[in-house]
């Protein structure tokens, strides 16, 4: 049965009264509710949906931009425009509530609505909680009561838009809706903050957010005193001591004095910041966090918000909104240009990701999947969460967040800003850091390659890769790909027995799947042969090489190409290289081909291993010759690499000559 708009308004009002425990006379009459209908469901609802749909379109347009600087500017401008629209919407709600009450005490000259949190920071979305307090010129009880009634009307109007998550089932309501469950109808979105950051307050907390500015300041002082009663006295004593010192000094520029006093007075802010660091600790390198859904608000959005605000507090720099805070840190030489650019990028990724998640779910749903949506399984549970196709920006987000987190930790205990590392760019591009981030996102192949690269660069920690991957496969049967990956990781740990156990399972598993004649099986036998050779088991090594060759010869498609790759992959000396050359020359009629580049490179490396450097030079020159033939007058990366390799070979020859002369 379709629910009439009038019935919905009346029912919502009954639930609203029950939820707020309103026992006084009706704040709004049934007739006024009916008069509100057109405003609620034509004007206001239409305005809200226009804002929400406009943001969806803005996000799509932003994603299409290719240059990062353009994206940053688009997101920054988009949020400024969005917040102007949201403030206009809230202003319309306030004025409608004032019109309904018709109370002469509600003179707009006597009060001001002060927006809080994301609404004040220009980072609110069309699905963000409405958070505000009201400042009054005069603590007149009649004015405060009229304002409180105005806020009740505002909340009712917002609830009637159908995006407020009220606990309907906790209140008894007459069955005028034929048993319709409102929990199913309503998805949380544009709503009053349920945590109490509005003049409605909370039942379990004794505070009032309709106050004069002087009384509102008392909350800050009382809050400070409650946290640390001794701190206030300490601050006063220290403040007096500093004033006495400065009064006896001849100094015309008092800016350093003001900054140092401000830093002392903001000591409570740094205490809160330390708590924030513990609360929002970055755990991308923890096994327990691997593959877990992200909470877009607590794990992404609040990271730059808390950390950048923390730096502003520590160094008493300027700025009200995030972008201005970054500019303030830059102007005060706390950070450099590159650092500021990266912090802006991090901020914009956080804001865009949060808005994208809300818009995609059309609600304040904060679960954020890091699965590639092109690879998402057909699971109802998975489809309920928003996923992204390209996580490159999110990876860079954490590459910036990790050094920023460390920088803030260090800054908390730094008294002299001249000791701050102003060369910090806030971008950790180390292979290990990127690998741990990829593991967090279950991108095992990318992480494995980065870890191996880190190992070649001198940082050997394959144990981390092994730990993550074993965690990944512990609750699922291993497929061939898993056996290969885990085998390579154990090989980097020099666990040869463990490697053999894994690689020996691959041919059996492939045979069960009718894939015994495949390059995967060839690769498995070649890998086993290499390990057996390392262990000195020559007979077993040769047996697996012969088995690999038998399989290669049975592969029908592109047999010759496969045979060339097979011989190159053996890395067993000149005999195999010569066989690869024979195949290639017969196949390509001794014409230049990209396969010859691989063969000659392999031949050069084998020659160097046996100290046959003149032959290595010959092969290096053949590589350059083939590249020049294939890519006439075209600059290619492989040509540069080949010249560098040739130079290194000549360097080895000079070192050997020097050694012989000595």
Structural features, described:
It comes from Racocetra fulgida. This is 3185_t:CDS:1. By secondary structure, the protein is mainly α. Helix content is 65%, strand content 3%. The protein has 28 helices and 7 strands. It has a 3-stranded mixed β-sheet. Strands 2-4 form a two-stranded parallel ribbon. It is elongated and about 100 Å long.
Please give a quick description of this structure.
The chain has about 650 residues and is mainly α.
Helices, strands, pairings?
Elements: H1 5-19, H2 30-64, H3 68-101, E1 111-115, H4 117-120, E2 129-130, E3 132-136, H5 141-160, H6 182-185, E4 191-192, E5 210-211, H7 213-227, H8 229-247, H9 255-265, H10 267-279, E6 294-295, H11 296-315, H12 322-331, H13 337-361, E7 367-368, H14 380-383, H15 392-412, H16 431-440, H17 444-456, H18 462-473, H19 480-492, H20 496-503, H21 505-512, H22 519-534, H23 538-554, H24 559-570, H25 574-588, H26 594-609, H27 613-630, H28 637-661
Parallel strand pairs: 2-4, 3-5
Antiparallel strand pairs: 1-3, 6-7
Protein name: 3185_t:CDS:1
Molecular shape: elongated
> How many distinct beta strands?
7
> What is the end-to-end distance?
99 Å
Largest sheet: 3 strands, mixed
- Note the total helix count: 28
Structural class: mainly alpha
Q: Strand percentage, roughly? A: under 5%
- Helix % is 55-70%
Strands across the major sheet, in which order? 1-3-5
Average pLDDT, rounded to a whole number, is 70
Low-confidence stretches: 1-6, 169-180, 224-236, 250-255, 261-269, 371-389
């Amino acid at each position: 049965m379709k629910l009439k708009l009038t019935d919905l308004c009346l029912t919502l009002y009954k639930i609203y009264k029950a939820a707020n425990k309103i026992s006084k006379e009706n704040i709004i009459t049934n007739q006024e509710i009916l008069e509100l209908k057109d405003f609620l469901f034509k004007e206001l609802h239409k305005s809200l949906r226009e804002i929400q749909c406009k943001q969806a379109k803005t996000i799509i347009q932003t994603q299409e931009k290719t240059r990062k600087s353009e994206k940053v500017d688009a997101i920054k401008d988009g949020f400024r425009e969005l917040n102007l629209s949201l403030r206009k919407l809230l202003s319309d709600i306030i004025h409608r509530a004032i019109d309904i009450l018709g109370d002469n005490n509600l003179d707009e000259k006597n009060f001001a609505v002060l927006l809080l949190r994301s609404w004040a920071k220009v980072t609110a979305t069309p699905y963000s909680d409405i958070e505000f307090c009201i400042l009054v010129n005069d603590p007149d009880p009649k004015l405060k009561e009229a304002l409180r009634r105005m806020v009740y009307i505002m909340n009712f109007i917002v609830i009637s838009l159908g995006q407020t998550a009220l606990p309907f089932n906790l209140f008894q309501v007459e069955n005028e809706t034929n048993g319709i469950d409102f929990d199913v109808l309503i998805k949380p979105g544009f709503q009053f903050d349920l945590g109490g950051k509005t003049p409605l307050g909370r039942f379990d907390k004794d505070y009032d957010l309709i106050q004069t500015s002087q009384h509102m300041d008392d909350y800050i002082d009382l809050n400070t005193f409650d946290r640390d009663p001794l701190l206030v006295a300490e601050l006063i004593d220290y403040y007096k001591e500093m004033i006495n010192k400065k009064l006896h000094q001849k100094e015309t520029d008092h800016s350093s004095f003001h900054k140092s006093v401000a830093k002392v007075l903001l000591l409570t802010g740094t205490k809160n910041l330390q708590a924030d660091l513990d609360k929002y600790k970055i755990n991308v390198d923890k096994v327990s966090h691997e593959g877990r859904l992200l909470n877009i608000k607590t794990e992404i959005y609040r990271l730059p918000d808390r950390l950048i605000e923390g730096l502003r507090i520590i160094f008493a720099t300027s700025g009200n909104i995030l972008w201005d805070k970054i500019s303030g840190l830059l102007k005060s030489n706390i950070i450099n240009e590159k650092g500021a650019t990266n912090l802006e990028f991090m901020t914009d990724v956080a804001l865009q990701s949060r808005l994208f998640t809300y818009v995609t779910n059309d609600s304040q749903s904060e679960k954020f999947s890091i699965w590639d949506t092109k690879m998402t399984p057909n699971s109802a549970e998975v489809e309920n969460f928003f996923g992204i196709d390209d996580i490159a920006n999110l990876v860079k987000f954490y590459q910036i967040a990790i050094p920023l987190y460390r920088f803030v930790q260090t800054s908390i205990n730094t008294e002299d800003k001249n000791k701050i590392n102003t060369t910090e760019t806030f971008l950790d591009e180390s292979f290990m850091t990127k690998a741990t981030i990829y593991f967090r996102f279950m991108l095992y192949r990318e992480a494995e390659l980065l870890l191996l690269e880190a190992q070649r660069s001198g940082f050997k920690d394959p144990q981390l890769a092994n730990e993550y991957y074993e965690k990944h496969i512990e609750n699922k049967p291993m497929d061939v790909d898993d056996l290969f990956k885990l085998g390579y990781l154990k090989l980097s740990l020099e666990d040869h027995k463990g490697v053999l156990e894994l690689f020996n399972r691959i041919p059996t598993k492939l045979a069960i799947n009718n894939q015994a004649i495949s390059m995967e099986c060839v690769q498995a036998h070649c890998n086993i042969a290499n390990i057996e050779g390392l262990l000195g088991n020559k007979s077993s090594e040769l047996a697996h090489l012969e088995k690999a060759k038998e399989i290669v010869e049975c592969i029908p498609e592109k047999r010759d190409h496969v045979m060339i790759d097979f011989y190159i992959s053996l890395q067993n000396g000149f005999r195999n290289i010569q066989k690869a050359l024979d195949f290639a020359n017969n196949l390509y009629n001794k014409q230049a081909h990209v396969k010859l580049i691989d063969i000659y490179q392999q031949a050069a490396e084998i020659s160097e291993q046996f100290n046959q450097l003149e032959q290595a030079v010959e092969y290096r020159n053949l590589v350059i010759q083939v590249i020049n033939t294939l890519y006439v007058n075209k600059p290619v990366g492989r040509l540069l690499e080949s010249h560098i390799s040739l130079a290194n070979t000549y360097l080895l020859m000079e070192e050997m000559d020097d050694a012989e002369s000595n």
